C-alpha cells in the first residue's frame, strides 16, 4: 500500500490477517464507575454521622447560651482565666472518672485489709443460717417467678413438690435468708463509707472554716459569677464527685437496702447538682451543700458498724446522735440557710433565669428525699429512747429477707437503713 507516495509495509497481526498500521489511537473502553452496596452504606452512615455532629453542635450552642445559665449581661466569657485568677471549667470534670476508678480499687484493698482486721477486732460474727433443702420445683419458682409466693401459688407448689403448705413456706423463708448479705460484707461496706465520709467532712470543714461565706452565706454571691477557684475547692469537688460516681459503679454489688431507689435518685441528683454548680461557678454554694451532707453520714455508718458487731447500746446512742445531726443539718440549716440564700437572696441582685430555677429545683429534689428519710429516722430513734421496748414476733428473725433490716437479739427490734 502506498501513502503519500511511499510504500507502507504490512504488519502481521498476531490474531488475524495482515493489517496496515494506523495513526489513530485506539482506547480500550472502561467500565462505568459504580459503588458497591457496602460503600454506599458507609457513605450514608458517614453523611448521617456528620449531620448528627452538626445537630449536636447546634444543640450544645443552644443549651449553653449565656442567657439560660447566667443573669443578664453575664456569661461564659466572664469565666476565662485572667490576671492570675483561675475559674472552673467543664473540661475539669473529666478527671472524676479516673478518680472514681481509683476509689473502686482503693475500696477493694481497704475492705480486704483494714475492714477485715477491724471486723475481727470488734468480733463481728456470722449468724448460723439453715440452708433450704434442694428442691428443683421450688428453686425454679424462686428464681424465675417470685421470692414471695402468694397463698394460691403456695397451694399450687404443694401439689407439684409433694410438700405441705408449712414446708413450702419454711423452704422459701430459708431460701430468702440464704441470699441475705453476710455480716462481714455489710460491715466492710459500712466501714469504707464511714472512713470516706469522716475524712471528707474533716477536709471540707478545714477548707471552709476560714471562708467568709461559711459564716455569712450571702457572701457566696459576692462577685458572682467571677469567683476565683481555690485549690482546696477544686480537690473537694473532684473527690466528692469521684466518690459518688464510684457508688453508681458499685451499686450492683453493694448491699441492697429498703430505700434502694431513693438512694439511686439521691446519687444522681447529687452528681447533677455538684456538676452543674461547678459548670456555672456556684462553687461556694456547692461546697456548703456537700459539707452539710457529710456532717451526718459518717455517724450513720458508724452506727451500722457497731450494730453488726453486736454493740447494741453504743449503736443506739450513736444513732440518736445521728438523728439529731441529720435533722439539724438537712431539715434546718439546708432549707432555712442555704436554700434560702440560693432561692430568695439572688432575686434581690438579679432577675430570675433558667439556671436559677434548675439549680434550686435539684435542691428541692434533695430536700424531699431528706424529709422522706427524716420520717424513717425519727420512727427508729423514738424506739431507742428509754422505755420504748418492742417485743419481736416469734417468726421475726426468719421473715427478714435481704433488705437492710437488722434483727436484734435484744428484747426489742433494731433497724438501721
UniProtKB/TrEMBL annotation:
Residues 123-183 bind DNA. GO terms for molecular function: DNA binding; sphingosine N-acyltransferase activity. Residues 121-182 form the Homeobox domain. Residues 185-386 form the TLC domain. Pfam families: Homeodomain, TRAM_LAG1_CLN8. It is a multi-pass membrane protein. Pathway: Lipid metabolism; sphingolipid metabolism; Sphingolipid metabolism. Keywords: DNA-binding, Endoplasmic reticulum, Homeobox, Lipid biosynthesis, Lipid metabolism, Membrane, Nucleus, Transferase, Transmembrane, Transmembrane helix. It catalyses: sphinganine + octadecanoyl-CoA = N-(octadecanoyl)-sphinganine + CoA + H(+). InterPro entries: HD (IPR001356), Homeodomain-like_sf (IPR009057), Lag1/Lac1-like (IPR016439), TLC-dom (IPR006634). PANTHER family: CERAMIDE SYNTHASE 2 (PTHR12560:SF7), LONGEVITY ASSURANCE FACTOR 1 LAG1 (PTHR12560). This is Ceramide synthase 2a.
Amino acid at each position: 500500500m502506498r501513502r503519500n507516495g511511499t510504500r507502507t509495509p504490512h504488519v502481521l497481526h498476531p490474531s488475524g490477517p495482515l493489517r496496515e498500521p494506523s495513526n489513530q489511537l485506539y482506547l480500550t473502553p472502561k467500565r462505568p464507575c459504580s459503588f458497591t452496596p457496602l460503600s454506599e452504606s458507609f457513605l450514608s452512615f458517614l453523611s448521617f454521622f456528620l449531620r448528627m455532629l452538626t445537630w449536636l453542635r447546634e444543640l450544645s450552642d443552644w443549651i449553653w447560651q449565656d442567657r439560660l445559665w447566667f443573669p443578664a449581661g453575664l456569661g461564659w466569657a466572664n469565666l476565662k482565666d485572667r490576671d492570675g485568677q483561675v475559674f472552673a471549667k467543664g473540661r475539669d470534670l473529666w478527671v472524676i472518672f479516673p478518680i472514681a476508678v481509683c476509689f473502686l480499687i482503693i475500696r477493694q484493698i481497704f475492705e480486704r485489709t483494714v475492714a477485715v482486721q477491724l471486723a475481727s477486732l470488734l468480733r463481728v460474727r456470722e449468724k448460723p443460717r439453715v440452708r433450704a433443702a434442694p428442691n428443683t420445683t421450688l428453686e425454679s419458682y424462686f428464681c424465675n417467678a417470685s421470692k414471695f409466693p402468694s397463698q394460691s401459688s403456695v397451694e399450687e407448689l404443694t401439689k407439684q413438690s409433694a410438700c405441705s403448705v408449712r414446708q413450702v413456706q419454711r423452704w422459701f423463708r430459708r431460701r430468702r435468708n440464704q441470699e441475705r448479705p453476710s455480716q462481714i460484707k455489710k460491715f466492710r461496706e459500712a466501714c469504707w463509707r464511714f472512713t470516706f465520709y469522716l475524712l471528707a467532712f474533716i477536709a471540707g470543714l478545714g477548707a471552709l472554716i476560714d471562708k467568709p461565706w461559711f459564716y455569712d452565706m450571702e457572701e457566696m454571691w459576692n462577685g458572682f459569677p467571677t469567683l476565683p477557684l481555690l485549690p482546696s475547692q477544686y480537690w473537694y469537688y473532684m473527690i466528692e464527685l469521684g466518690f459518688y460516681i464510684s457508688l453508681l459503679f458499685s451499686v450492683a454489688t453493694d448491699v441492697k437496702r429498703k430505700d434502694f431507689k431513693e438512694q439511686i435518685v439521691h446519687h444522681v441528683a447529687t452528681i447533677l447538682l455538684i456538676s452543674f454548680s461547678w459548670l456555672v461557678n456556684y462553687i461556694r454554694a456547692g461546697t456548703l451543700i456537700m459539707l452539710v451532707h457529710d456532717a451526718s453520714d459518717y455517724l450513720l455508718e458508724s452506727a451500722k458498724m457497731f450494730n453488726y458487731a453486736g454493740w447494741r447500746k453504743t449503736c443506739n446512742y450513736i444513732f440518736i446522735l445521728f438523728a439529731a445531726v441529720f435533722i439539724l443539718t438537712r431539715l434546718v440549716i439546708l432549707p432555712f440557710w442555704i436554700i434560702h440564700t440560693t432561692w430568695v437572696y439572688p432575686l434581690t441582685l438579679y432577675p430570675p433565669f433558667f439556671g436559677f430555677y434548675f439549680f434550686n429545683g435539684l435542691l428541692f429534689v434533695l430536700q424531699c428525699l431528706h424529709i422522706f428519710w427524716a420520717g424513717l429516722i425519727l420512727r427508729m430513734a423514738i424506739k431507742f429512747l428509754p422505755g420504748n421496748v418492742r417485743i419481736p414476733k416469734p417468726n421475726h428473725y426468719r421473715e427478714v429477707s435481704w433488705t437492710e433490716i437488722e434483727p436484734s437479739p435484744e428484747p426489742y427490734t433494731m433497724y438501721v437503713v
